[in-house]
Every structure is written in structure tokens, then in C-alpha cells.
Amino acid sequence: MKKIKQYRLFFLLALAGHLSIIGLFAINYTAVDEPEIKQEQKTPEIIQASILDETRVTQKAEELKQAQATKKRLQKRQKEKLAQQIEREQQRLQVAQNKRKQVEAKAKKAQQAEQQRLANIKKTVALEKKKQALIKQQRIAQEKKRLSDAKRLKEQQEKAAAIKKEAEKQQKIAAEKQRVAAAEKVRLQKIADNKRRVEQARLAKVRADLQAKNAEIAKKAVMSASILIDKKVTRAWNRPVNMASNLACTIKVNLLPSGDVMSAKVAKSSGDTLFDTSAERAVYKASPLPVPKDSAIFEKNFRRFRFNFAPK
Amino acid sequence: MTIKNKSLMALILILALSACSDKVTKQNLSEQAALNSGAENNAYNGGDDLSVETVAIGQGMDQLTELMQSDTFSNPNSPLSKRIIYFEYDSSNVKAEFVPVVEAHAVYLVNNPNQTIALEGHSDERGTREYNIALAEQRAKSVFNMLQVLGVMSHQVDIVSYGEEKPDAIGFDEQAFQLNRRVEVVYK
Amino acid sequence: MNSFKQIVSLLLVLNSVLYANTLRAELIIDITEGIQSTHKIAVVPFAMHTSASDKEQEVISQIISSDLGGSGDFSILAKEEMLSAPTQAGQVKYRHWAVTGQDYLVIGSILKQDKLYKIKMSLFDVVKKQQINDLLINVESRSLRKAGHYLSDAIYKTIMGIEGVFSSRIAYVTTSESVKKKKQFSLFVSDYDGHNAVAITKSNEPLMSPAWSPNGLHIAYVSFENKVSEIFVQTLSTGARRSVAKFKGVNGSPAWSPDGKKLAITLSKSGNSDIFILTLANGSIKQLTRSWAIDTEASWSPDGNSILFTSNRGKGAQLYIMPSNGKGMAERLTFEGDYNARGSFSKDGKQVLMVQGKKGSYRIAVLDIEKQQTTILSAGKADESPSFSSNGQVVIYARRKAGKEILSLVSVDGLKKQDIKSNLGFVREPAWAPKAK
């Protein structure tokens, strides 16, 4: 009913339409009973003949034929023509009859349909009435409801509005809170960032210190190993006697991590083979050299290095 | 008169002593003895400390030995018995104490112009050998110069330096050194 | 401006060094000192291949061992400590020798064929694990010792880089007794180690100052056999000799000129000991020094242009030097000690060997002319007659030990000392023969 109220206009229009259609059908029903047969009235024979047409016609034809042989030809022709015409007419009639029959059938059908329709319409109307009543009721109810709904809606809306307001308020507060929180967060973040930066800096310094310490340790390790190696090679260097005091040569060495001398070769000669050889031999003799145990330090400094043999 | 008696007694005493003395190493004699076959006792000349005896040149070893064993040359009181002149280290100066010795020999040689001697210079063993030859020669020459000044003819004196090659005393100490720094007067 | 430039250049150098170092990032260890110790060497007894009847001792490795060991430059491994006895290169296992710290290894073999010896010697560097010498020599049996010395020289030269002295000869004077009772003096020539000693002259009178001619064929010496000092020159191969100086007074201290044609000698015929130059071909003499002082113990500079001699012209014996042609003043060379005498030049002319006396102790000393530094080589108290070895590394000299006179060796740096044992009585005045040419 609510819906009928809502679509009152459209409902009325539909009702009108239906009623008009019913009216039209009522009129048309009477008119349908009169088929067009005017044309066939010209040849009533034919009409009568229509029931016995076929056999008579044929008989006639035969008769005529038999009757009139020469004339027959013309007549035949005429007759043929006529026959044809008749045939045609008959056909046409048949057709028309068929048509009419069809129409009649149709009309019947239509009538029936119409009747049905009318009946339906009646039903429908009745239904409609009921519907309308219902609709009305519904509408009323709906209206009531609508009103109450509207009221409620209003209330709701008000509530909603209130809530919304409240919500907005809350939101504002929340927003404010958030803002504050955000600000706080930013502040804290800044502090945290600072802290982190400081911490990072500290860690970086610690790391750097550690690195420096490691480098220092490595340096010390290299130095102390160098001193030990120096001592060992010095002890193993049997210097040639009576040699010029300005002799100096460079020996390049390849070591194994164990300190064993893999090769010791003259990189820069002193000009005196005896001196050079004595330096080479000193390195071999001092093998294995006391290299640091740390493999990184070893690889970096002691895998390959040089000796400068230059007595003071 | 008394002097003569005294000296005679002294001589007898000395004789007695020297007769049984083997201890005193008459080193000069021993060297000469090597050339001699035997020793002959010669009569002693009595009297003066310095006896002049003419010995003919080329009279032979016997005569030389005789001479050396004569009182003049063997009597310790006789300066001629002293025929080693000792020297100070690195010096060729004749020390004062030996001047009379040199003089004595000079006198004898002057008085015996046919007598020849050899002055053998020696040094102690310190230092190098050839340098010591030169050093020892200087000592011998030093003695020779003194002799010359005293009138001895150069042809009477031969100089030989042995350096450290013929030491008198063995040892590398001052005692030995002292005994080796010498010039020996060797009568020929 | 200069100092500024200096600073800039120094900074540049420093920078480039630092830059180069960081760029190269390579460690460089400086070795500024070494030790001077002996080389450890093992001389494995040579394999002897002789006929069954021969019972010959393998003497070559013994000679090599005593040569090298005696030089003071080597320590010889005792046989008991040898872990193996290779006689061929293929048998050498370096670790057997590295275990006892050997620096070098000598192995070899001797094959005797009739009277001929084929001697093979191989020398290895144990530290560098490589063979460094290989020799094959043929000698007659009488030259076996010579062969051993030849190999020692070869080994020494390979390792030390300088000539060895093991094939050299020495001359020296012996006396049978030290008391001046009937002594016998002898002049000997022998191998440097005293073997094969031959007396080339004998006398009851002193013999002194033996001097080798530069070609090693003759020896000049002073003899008192005729009761005066006299200089003789004797040819070793024949034993023939002639008297070259018998002047009045001292005839002494003969010294050969480097060309072998002259002798610088000491004569005192002009009054006191002076240096004269004697030309051997014609016997002519030329006076070099003319002072009132003692001038003696002449010796020639290696180039023959100068004469070094002892003189006391400056009070006390000191060394002086003057041109050998007589044209120039004598210059004093020694200023240390109370006494410096018997000087002789090293072959390179840079050092003077001498006897130095200080407070009664006489020791062998070496003066470095350029550095003006004197090194005392011996302990004293009565060390004398020093002579350089043919390679200039060793000095032979005479010294007293427990009342005896012996010869002794000392290295030129004074570190290695060794007395030479002798049964020849009292030994003195050693003279080292020059390297045979």
C-alpha cells in the first residue's frame, strides 16, 4: 500500500489504460461477427457450388466439354479462363474463407481471449480493488509508518546528528588528541631520533674505536712480529767479512701461513753477489719466520713482503 | 915494596880461587874455546894490573886463548877482564860505570896496535829483529867511537851486530833484558 | 732560501715515500746487523775406489776439513753427527744436514788408477738446497795433499768469494835451542799448514828475515854464517844462491819490489842504518834515507812507488813512508803507541800491518790508512814478524808461548786465532809466499 501511495499517479494511469482496453474490446467484439463476403456474392453458383463445387465443376466441365467441342475450345478457353477464374475465385474464396475462418477463429480466439481477458480484468479489477484497499490500507499504514518513521527518522537523524555532533566533537577532541599526540609523537620521535642519532654516533664511535683498536692491535702485531722476524733473520745472517759498508740489497719473500719461507729472491741487488747470497741465505735459514697467527693480519702483511739488508 | 907484596898475595889468592872456579861462566872464553882444541896453562905475569904483552898477529888460537887466560884478561880486578858493556833500554850511551872499562881496552889496544877486536852488539828481545840489529849496532858503534876518541885505530875494531839473535839470558823479563843489552868486546 | 728548498724537497721525498708505501702497502723489514760466525760445513769422507791391496786412508776429506776448519771461517761437523754419508749428488738429502744446522755440504769420491788419482768433489748449499760447485781433478799420488788444498781453495772461493790460502807456502826460521850454546838455525819452506817442510839452508849462525820474491821462486834472507850479516838470494827450485849484499856493517832486512827487480835493504856502511835500493841485475845500490837516525825494515807499497820503513828519527821507533825514487820527504805514519815497527802493506794498499809496542807489550796491529784506525790483532807480550796471507785475510806471526817460540794465525779482523803446532823446536820469522802466478 505504501507503494500504491507512492506511485499513485502511475497506478491511476494503469487502471485507466486497462479499462479503456476492456472497453475497446467490448466494442470490437460485436464488429468482428460480420466478415466480408461481398466479393463472393457475384457467383453464387460458385457459392453453392462451393459445397458441391468440385464435383460439379468437374462434371460441368466435362459436360460442357462433351457438349460443346468446338465452342468448347473457346468456351473451353473461356471456361478455362473462367475455370481458372473460378478456380482463382474459388481459391480466393477458399483463401478468403480460410482467412475468414482464420479470422473467425482468431476472432473466436480473440473473443475468448477477450473474455478471458475481461474475466482476468475483472479479476484483476477485483484484485485491484482489493489491492487498492490494501494499498490504501497499506498507504495509511505506510503513512503512519512513514510518519512514525519520519519521526523516528527525525529522531534518528537528530540522534544521528547529535551523535554526529558528538562524534564530531569527539572527533575534534580526538583530532585534537591526535594532533597533540602527533605533536607529542613528533617530539618524542625527535627525541628518539636524537637518541638514535646519538646512539648511532656512539656506536659508530665505538665501532671506529674498535676498528682503530683492531688496527692498533694489528699494527702492534705487525710491529712485534716484524721485530721478532728481524731478530731471527739478524741472528741467521752470516755477514761476509771485509765488505764495503755501503752495500744494501732487497730480498722479496713469499711465506706460507706457517711462516715457512716459500721463496726468497733478490729484488734489488747490492752489486755484490756474495752480499746478496748471504742475505738470501739468511732468510731461508731463519725459516720458519715468527709471523702473527691471525690469518687476516698475516695475509695483509706477511704473505708477501720485503727485507732491506743494509748494514749500518 | 908493600904494595907489591900485597898485590902478589892478591894474585895468589885470585889464582887459587880461579883455579877451582867453574862457576864463573867465562862466556867469552867458552866461545873462543870452541875454536880451540885445548887449554894450555900459561905462566902468569905478575905485578901490574895492566900487563902489556905483545902478541904477534896470526900467532894462532893458542896464543889468543893464552892471552885471554892471562891475568890481564882474566883477573876480575883487571878492567880488561870486563869485556861486556851493558846498556840501558833503547839507549846506546855508554854508562858512566863502564867508561873505565872502555878506557882500559882503549889503552890496551893503543898499546897493542896489532891487536884487533870485534865489538859485538846485542839487544834485548823486545821489539822487532832488524830494528834490534840496528839498535845493537849503535851500541857497538858507541863503544867504538869512544875507543876511537881514545886513540884506537879503526882497523883494529870490527863491528858486528847480532841484534837479539844471540841472547845471553833466556827469559822475557827485565833481568834477562838487562843481561842481553850489551856490547861484547871480543879479542881476536 | 736554501733551507727552505731543503725542507720542501725533504717533504716531497717523505710524501712520496709515504705515498709509495701506502700505495704498495707492502711491509718492509730492515735488517741492519748480522752476526759474524763461522759457516757450518760437513765434509763427508770421500768414497775410495782403490784396488784391494791398497790400504789407503782417505786423506782428501781430512785435508779439506783441517783447511776449512783452520781458516776460522768454518765449523766442521764431527763425523759422529753425520746422519748419512752420500758420495754422489743423487744421494744427498738436504734435511739430513739441515737438521744439524749445516750451511754447506762437501762430498766426493776418489778413484785410483795405477799411480793416478781421479778426484771428484761436489759442494752443496744446504740452506738454499742447491749444488754450487762440482770439480774433477787428476793428480799423481805425490800431489795428493796438493789436490786436497786445491779443493779447499775452490770451496773457500765459492762460499767466501775470496781466494783461499790453502795452497800457499810459508817460510820460517827455526832454532834448535834457545840458549846460545851451539845452536842450529834453519830456514824452512813448507805448506801453509806445516806439512812438507824442507830446510833450504842451515847454519850455526843466525838466519833472519826471509823474504819471498813476488813470483814465489826465490827467497832473500840474512845469514851470519860468515860471521857478519850478509844478504843472500836463493832460488828454491835449484837451491842455488848468491850473496847480493856484504857491505861493511849491517846488511839486513831485504824487501822485494813488486816487479821483483829490486831489493830495498838496510846498510849501515854510511854510518848508521839507512835504506838502500839494490838493483839485482847489476848489484848497483842507491841510498834512499840519509838521516842520522836508524832507518830500517823497508817494505814496498803495492804500486812500487813508496817505501814504508821503521825509523827512530822522531824519538822511538815509528813507521814512515817516502817515495821509492827518493824524491820527496819521509812522512810519519804511526802516532799510536810507544813503538811501531816492521810495517808492511796489504795487497790493496789500504792497510799497514805492523808490530806495536805499548807499555812493554808488543802486539800485532793493523792500521787502516784512510780511517786512521788501528786494530790490535794479538794479545802480546812478545808478538813479532807479522806477514799477510796471500788473500790478505789472515796474518801469520811469531809469538812466545810458555817459554817456546811458535807461529800463530789471526784473522785480519782479529776475531779468529789459531796457534800452529810444530815439532821443529823454536819457530820464528814467518813469511807467507805470494800467490803463485
Explain this structure to me?
The complex is a heterotrimer of chains A (312), B (188) and C (437). Helices cover 78% and strands 7% of the residues of chain A. In chain A, strand 1 and strand 2 form a beta hairpin. The two termini of chain A are 125 Å apart. Chain A is mainly α and 312 residues long. The longest helix of chain A is centred in the middle third of the chain and has 167 residues. Chain A has a 3-stranded antiparallel beta sheet. With 188 residues, chain B is α+β, with helices and mostly antiparallel strands. Helix content of chain B is 44%, strand content 12%. Chain B is built from 7 helices and 4 strands. In chain B, helix 6 links the parallel strand 2 and strand 3. The longest helix of chain B is centred in the C-terminal third of the chain and has 21 residues. In chain C, a hairpin with a 6-residue loop joins strand 16 and strand 17. In chain C, the strands form 7 sheets. In chain C, strands 2, 3, 4, 5, 6 and 7 form a 6-stranded mixed beta sheet that branches. Chain C has a 4-stranded antiparallel beta sheet with strand order 10-9-8-31, with no helix packed on it. Chain C has a 4-stranded antiparallel beta sheet with strand order 11-12-13-14, with no helix packed on it. Chain C has 2 domains: 159 residues, TolB, N-terminal domain (Rossmann fold), CATH 3.40.50; 264 residues, TolB, C-terminal domain (Neuraminidase). About 3% of the residues of chain C have low confidence. Chains in contact: A-C, B-C. Chains A and C meet through helix 4, helix 5, helix 6 and strand 3 of A and strand 1 of C.
Q: Overall pLDDT of chain B, averaged?
A: 76
**Largest sheet features of chain C:** 6 strands, mixed
What is the name of the CATH superfamily of chain B? OmpA-like domain
As for the CATH topology of chain B, it is: 60s Ribosomal Protein L30, Chain: A
Number of self-contained structural domains of chain C: 2
Q: Can you identify the CATH superfamily of the largest domain in chain C? A: TolB, C-terminal domain
Compact summary:
Chain A is built from 6 helices and 3 strands; from the N terminus they run H-H-H-H-E-E-H-H-E.
Please give the structural blueprint.
The complex is a heterotrimer of chains A (312), B (188) and C (437).
Chain A: H1 2-6, H2 8-32, H3 44-67, H4 70-236, E1 249-255, E2 261-268, H5 273-285, H6 295-302, E3 304-309
Antiparallel strand pairs in A: 1-2, 1-3
Helix pairs in contact in A: 2-4, 3-4, 4-5
Chain B: H1 2-20, H2 27-35, H3 61-69, H4 71-74, E1 84-86, H5 99-111, E2 117-122, H6 129-149, E3 157-163, H7 174-180, E4 182-187
Parallel strand pairs in B: 2-3
Antiparallel strand pairs in B: 1-4, 2-4
Helix pairs in contact in B: 2-3, 5-6
Chain C: H1 2-24, E1 28-31, E2 39-43, E3 47-49, H2 60-70, E4 74-76, H3 94-98, E5 104-113, E6 116-125, E7 130-140, H4 144-160, E8 169-175, E9 185-191, E10 198-203, E11 207-212, E12 218-223, E13 230-235, E14 241-245, E15 251-256, E16 262-267, E17 274-279, E18 285-287, E19 295-300, E20 306-311, E21 318-323, E22 331-332, E23 339-345, E24 351-358, E25 361-368, E26 373-376, E27 384-388, E28 394-401, E29 404-411, E30 417-420, E31 426-432
Parallel strand pairs in C: 2-4, 2-5, 3-5
Antiparallel strand pairs in C: 5-6, 6-7, 8-9, 8-31, 9-10, 11-12, 12-13, 13-14, 15-16, 16-17, 17-18, 19-20, 20-21, 21-22, 23-24, 24-25, 25-26, 27-28, 28-29, 29-30
